Amino acid sequence: MQTVTSGTVQTRFGAVVDIAKGGTPVTITQYGRPTLMLFAYKEGEELLRMRHAAEQENWNKERMRHITPEASALTDEQMNDLVHELRP
Question: Which residues fall within 8 angstroms of residue 23, CB to CB, at 6 or more apart?
């Protein structure tokens, strides 16, 4: 990983982009603090996909936390039957 200042990005944007496109993430600092990261598009897509998968997994775990052992033992067909029974 490479770190550059926001001033460097302003004056040497093309060079910084080339670094990121080459596969090396670039951390951009402002006033000495990390503020942004720049990386290749494909890497960003993969990171977003992984984040979405983790959020989905957490959502599923939270949802399953409320399901009783009896309910989790039901088959899809049994659940369908119950839903149809409850519909007006």
Answer: 40, 43
Centroid of chain to Cα 80:
33
Question: Count of residues for the chain?
Answer: 88
40 HSE (CA, 13 A, CB side): 10
* Spatial separation of the C-alpha atoms in residues 88 and 27, rounded to whole Å: 58
C-alpha distances in Å from residue 66, one per residue of 20, 37, 70, 72: 44, 38, 12, 10
Average pLDDT along the chain, 88 residues, taken 10 residues at a time? 96 97 96 97 96 93 82 88 89
